[in-house]
Design a protein that fits this description.
Distance between the termini: 77 Å
Radius of gyration: 30 Å
Helix content: 10-25%
Shape: globular
Strand content: 35-45%
Number of helices: 9
Low-confidence stretches: 3-21, 435-485
Length: 485
């Protein structure tokens, strides 16, 4: 092939590649615009946020646009227009190694905040966003916010150092991370200094079929007046599976030093396991449809009662554990509550007072109890003593209560069993909309009771349509959720 043919071939190849690239860029640009407009429509339909004045001008290889974001409540009310955020953006939809499109955006301060909020950068840009869409459909974004000062009056202000965030989305997951190195608050009553704040959240396909979400907040150090706090960590996890929702929360504190007391190695764990997922769906939908508690929808109370009945019918488990070290000694406490599914499960009849079992324990050093000004707990019968450790246990089951292994009728608190059972009966009747007296516990065996389940109320049947009823054995045989380890 001579030189002339090589040049022609090269020109043809360049035209083909350029045409293909232009076509791909045009297709990508159209897809980006379509997704943006669909996202705006979805956000506006869901409420809470309102996007207005949306414009998008698309070219062959890039596009630019802007929109305003207003916040609002569940009822659709919006903040004034001068308090809305203005977002301007630029999109490059020339395919590259990172993905088919790259984004950069600026979030501008509301006009109402100018004069109150001062950016260290000297402009009105609250945040800068740099993002790209991957070939697999994921989105990765880095967000930078400059140092900012917020003034509230002549003597109060908040100063935040430059912060950084990261957002990534995949086919079934959303992850958000934010780092705030320092935050200072100045008020006439005193000042506060917060250091090393971090936020992390992950949502993995949290829908009706299942999924898991996790949130974690970390505070490295805080000083408020003479008090200091170090290594605070708050975390929560929700897991939806097999028609139920499990929740675990943990609070950890390295140390707290104050004027009145010093505390170290504090840990609080709370777990809730086996909550009927469809009942939660009914509660959320009922509250959303009626604008929270502000405008009750017709039949709202009946739907909430039906959801409660479904939770009771399935059974639920709760665990709470607390521990910490004081200057005078340590303290440990735990509460385990089990609401067993009644015979016949979702269609059965059960009495809360018979379904509920409780075991609580508390142990603390005698020196700590004395320092708190408590009377002699051993002499009064509220605690037992082994060495320098005081211990108390409380149990409730089948309408009977025991304190430190003895019936409460023989303790200083009196016979607490019937009182607890009566309170549970009253609660059950209130939530069920029943004003009749409590029926005596059925004499039939569990097998007989399971063989003839009572029909579920109409509202309960409607609430149960969202998810299939759980078998009786599922609520009764679920393993204990441990809130702290």
């Amino acid at each position: 092939m001579d030189k002339r043919n090589l040049v022609v071939a090269a020109l043809v190849g360049t035209v083909v590649v350029s045409s293909t690239g232009a076509a791909l860029s045009a297709w990508t640009g159209a897809a980006v615009e379509r997704e943006l407009r669909a996202g705006v429509e979805t956000i506006n339909q869901q409420g809470g946020l309102r996007i207005s004045e949306f414009t998008h001008e698309r070219g062959l290889f890039s596009a630019a646009g802007q929109f305003k974001v207003q916040s609002g409540g569940a009822c659709g009310e919006l903040v004034p227009g001068d308090a809305s955020l203005l977002v301007t953006y630029h999109v490059s939809h020339v395919a590259g190694l990172a993905g088919p499109a790259q984004f950069d955006a600026l979030v501008h301060l509301p006009s109402a905040a100018q004069g109150v909020v001062q950016m260290a950068s000297g402009d009105d840009v609250l945040a800068r966003v740099d993002a790209h869409a991957g070939w697999s459909g994921n989105l990765i974004a880095d967000i930078d916010s400059p140092a900012v000062t917020v003034t509230a009056g002549a003597e109060a202000s908040i100063k935040a150092e430059r912060s950084h965030g990261h957002v990534s989305t995949g086919a079934h997951a959303l992850q958000v991370d934010w780092q705030q190195p320092g935050l200072r608050v100045y008020t006439p009553l005193g000042n506060a200094n917060l250091q090393s704040l971090a936020w992390h959240s992950t949502v993995a396909r949290m829908d009706r079929d299942g999924g898991q979400s996790q949130v974690e907040l970390v505070l490295g150090h805080a000083a408020v007046g003479p008090a200091t706090l170090d290594a605070l960590r708050l975390s929560a996890t929700a897991h939806r599976h097999d028609g139920q929702v499990d929740v675990d929360t943990t609070y950890q504190l390295g140390s707290f030093a104050g004027v009145a007391a010093n505390v170290r190695q504090v840990r609080l764990g709370w777990g809730l396991k086996g909550v009927d997922a469809s009942a939660l769906d009914v509660v959320n939908k009922t509250l959303n449809d009626s604008c929270g508690w502000q405008h009750p929808a017709a039949g709202k109370l009946e739907m909430l009662r039906a959801a409660f009945q479904r939770v009771v019918a399935r059974g639920v488990q709760q665990d709470l554990k607390v521990s910490g070290q004081f200057d005078q000694g340590s303290v440990d406490a735990a509460v385990a509550m089990r609401l067993q599914a009644p015979p016949g499960a979702l269609g059965g009849t059960g009495r809360l007072a018979d379904q509920l079992t409780v075991h609580a324990s508390l142990s603390a050093s005698r020196q700590l109890a004395a320092g708190a000004g408590l009377p002699d707990l051993v002499k009064t019968g509220f605690a037992t003593q082994v060495g320098e450790l005081l211990s108390t246990t409380f149990d409730y089951a089948g309408g009977r209560a025991r304190l430190n292994g003895r019936a409460t009728g023989q303790s200083p608190v009196g016979d607490a069993g019937p009182l607890i059972a009566g309170a549970l009966d009253a609660l059950q009747h209130l939530l069920a909309g029943d004003t009749h007296e409590t029926p005596a516990p059925a004499a039939a065996s569990p097998v007989e009771a399971a063989a003839e389940p009572a029909p579920a109320p109409v509202a309960l049947q409607a609430a149960a349509e969202a998810a299939p009823a759980a078998p009786a054995s599922e609520g009764a045989s679920a393993s204990v959720a441990t809130a702290s380890h």
